[in-house]
Amino acid sequence: MSDIADAGILKQVDLLTSKLRRRQLAGAQESAMETTLLIKYVVTNAKFGTIEELISIIKATGRRLVEAQPKEHTVGNIVRRILRLIREEWAAAASNPPQEDGDEEQNEDGSETPKKSKATLAYSKLLGSHLGAQASIASPITRLRTVPGADSQYSLSNFVLHGRPHRDANMFSSIFSSSGRTDPTAKPSKNAESIRPALISAIEEVLDDLETVFDTVSSAAKDHIHSDEIILTLGMSRTVEAFLKKAAMDRNYTALIAEAAPSFSGHQMARSLAAAGINSILIPDSAVYAVMSRVNKVILGAHAILANGGVFSAAGSILAAHAAQTHRTPVVFCAGQFKLSPLWNVYHAHGSLDFANPAHVLGFEEGRLMDQVDVLNPTYDYVPPELINVFITNDGDIPPASMNRLVKETYDDEDYQM
Amino acid sequence: MTSVESVPSTSTQVPAVGAAPDGPPQRKQLTKAERRELQEKQRAAKAAATAAGAPAKAGNAPKPAPKPSQGQNTKASTPAGASGSTATASNAPATAAKKAAKSGKEVDTQLVDKTADLEAQRRHQTRIFTHFVGKKEGGLGAGIKGEIHPAIIRLGRQFADMKIVGANARCIAALVAFKTIIQDYITPQNLTLARDLTQYISPQISYLVSARPMAVGMGNSIRELKYHISVVSIDMPEQDAKDHLCEQIDTYISHRIVLADSVIEEYAMAKIQNGAVIMTYARSSVVERVLIAAWTRGKRFSVKVVDSRPMLEGKNMLAQFVKVGIPCTYLLINGVGSVIAEVSMVFLGAHAINSNGSVYSRAGTALVAMLAKEHSVPVLVLSETYKYSNNIQLDSFTKNELAPIPDPRTSSRRITTRDRLGNETDVDDETRNPNLQSINPLYDLTPHTHITVLVTEVGLIPPSAISTLAGLRDKDKGMQLSV
């Protein structure tokens, strides 16, 4: 676990960590964008010999950022995602250059395989070599999508491997592969720096995704909201705001907005929706149950999506979700996939605890009382997956049960703990 | 219907069937749909006419055009919530007039059509909330015939301004006011007290209802009072009769409310154990009383006081607890999800108990009860039996009341939003967007499934058993309770 040696990079990282710590940078999408920009800076300016060095620099960066503000989960998510992209790019680059051995470009039986599986095959070989080089370190086995020696991507042994813990996968690979472990030597160093442009463009793709996430999430809005429906939402979420505004272009409906005291973010949302021509009705948070019998859908925004399909969202969401369940009303969360976090905790409700300024609940005007009373102003609620019907993300509609598969596809195991 | 005759030049749709010259038969011949169409056309035409008239005035005085519209706005804006649609109705022709003055005549009809459409939309969309009782048009006591006693006028004002809130407080205040009325009342010649006093009291009750809808307990007590008035013997001297009635009122208050509360206190205290963490919501006089008594008797526990806007009544209860020394935590209702795991029981008050056991109480009670039940935390509702109502409500929409909070569209009170660091950003709410309205339901209905037990002066009963209490069914027999 190395730290950052380069002073220039360290300075930039410190700038971002202090912003995060002081909550000058708040909000899932803004944090994600800033983190992506920082990582892009790191990738552009870091000096690394092997790809492992770059990965460890980025991991050190991620560790610092996450420690600064553990409640902004998108920071860690972006770092993990970029690490995954780096490994993929490296694997793709490693399978292409001319000095590769002939038999590594094709499968053992000589048949052609599609380009993607070539990359993943090479990826798996790389990691096999990676593992060989670090055999002494007891780290979790990394991804091994195909068994070397398998006929094609769809062979039975591949299906068997899918979803198994990865250390088993390695066991299988050593059993099935006839040629044994692949060459454990690391790739020549001049290749590592050569993929820098490819990495930067991959990171820029991530940045583009983040910038347009509100538009992509709301692209199918009109299919989810129908005419004359009454939608309930809570507080302010830019994703939900974009979603509702997009739907309003084709549908005529009413939005009930719970004001989300004491931040009153609901007022901002209501004003914004009303300005867009949506019939908006602002209600206090206590009225959520009272109006629920007339609500057709509850649409909420998420702060972080957890691997079990649960959600950290604005305080009051658990009340709205339970009330909706009592009335058999569907609960929908709109969120970009950058909010998906691989974190897992047995007591998620404790993991969501984050407190804001208590003076907004009981302020100094109640001076006498303030002294003798504990005042709480929780920011987030944990909503368990049983209460959620669907996630509307920038990559389609996903049921909560599929979240863990998505986590596996987006992040690498060894990055879960930075 | 008079508009049909007052604008003869624009009425294009008068059918020539039967050629009836006089007014009423002609009116009957138009069907309801035709009449409505006619009215819409005339309204639109009127708006066009005023818009056409506006360019003539525009050169001289642009100011009078905005001023009347503002005047209309402030007048129409005092009723909150549901009648917000009337504010938009007055807004729309005014803005149409202003716009037409600027843009020219040929745009007039277009804009007028659009605003008429918008109006129709608005009316359609806010219909579901219109039966919520909000501030009545015409203000306090409008249209009530008869002399209103000054004590009732004062009480009505106090109700309307939310100076007296809470079921018990309102009921006791009303009964005390009625005692004053009865003592001041003088039976007119040739009339019996039994009949006339009832008639005299009716407009007083209507006046109170115009301030705020009748509370269930208050209604029950007044019904009993009317019964007692009706059985006053014709031979009883007037002062004796009045004293007797006042005594009945006193007995009602003392038995059904004050003593009942003491009994509930005993029952509920027995359920509090040392080290308990008790959650309460908003303010209930009974819950306050129980917890203070338990603490004074030596039980040691802590309380989480949950509060909510717009009433923020929990602060008052918090102040009482702090005075006695109970360790308290204070939070708003959105924070309940974060603390429910630590709570050992929930005490709630009620405005009314329905015959199927559902509890009609301050908005937010249902949320707290529901979440507590999900986490297997017992929910105790403390209520006297005089709050029993024979009604069954299916949901919180059947019967509710809106708080007279100023409409964010039209009030000049600045609403601020806070960002993560707590910096307030003033949001300009002078925009008066007709799409935005706010409603503040005061009550909600907690189904009996969310409640563990109902603590009344006749004991701890499951909520659905409330209707089987014999004495409550025989309301006409007065104060009989089967214990």
Quick summary of this structure?
The complex is a heterodimer of chains A (418) and B (483). Chain A has 418 residues and is α/β, with parallel strands linked by helices.
Structure in words:
The complex is a heterodimer of chains A (418) and B (483). With 418 residues, chain A is α/β, with parallel strands linked by helices. Chain A has two domains: 7-95 and 150-211, translation initiation factor eif-2b, domain 1 (Four Helix Bundle (Hemerythrin (Met), subunit A)), CATH 1.20.120; 214-415, Rossmann fold (3-Layer(aba) Sandwich). Chain A is 47% helix and 11% strand. Chain A has helices at 7-21, 28-45, 51-68, 73-95, 102-105, 115-133, 156-161, 166-176, 189-194, 196-211, 213-217, 221-224, 238-248, 265-275, 288-292, 317-326, 348-351, 367-370, 403-410, and strands spanning 230-234, 254-258, 279-283, 297-301, 304-305, 311-314, 331-334, 373-375, 380-383, 390-393, 396-398. In chain A, helix 2 runs antiparallel to helix 10 (196-211) and helix 3 packs antiparallel against helix 4 (73-95). Chain A is globular. Mean pLDDT of chain A is 81; it is low at 99-119, 130-152, 166-170 and 177-189. Among the domains of chain B are: 150-261, Four Helix Bundle (Hemerythrin (Met), subunit A), CATH 1.20.120; 270-404 and 415-482, 3-Layer(aba) Sandwich (Rossmann fold). In chain B, 46% of the residues lie in helices and 12% in strands. Chain B contains 16 helices and 14 strands. Chain B is globular. The N and C termini of chain B lie far apart (59 Å). Mean pLDDT of chain B is 78; it is low at 1-26, 54-97, 407-414 and 477-483. Chains A and B meet through helix 14, strand 3, helix 15, helix 16 and strand 8 of A and helix 6, helix 13, strand 3, helix 14 and helix 15 of B.
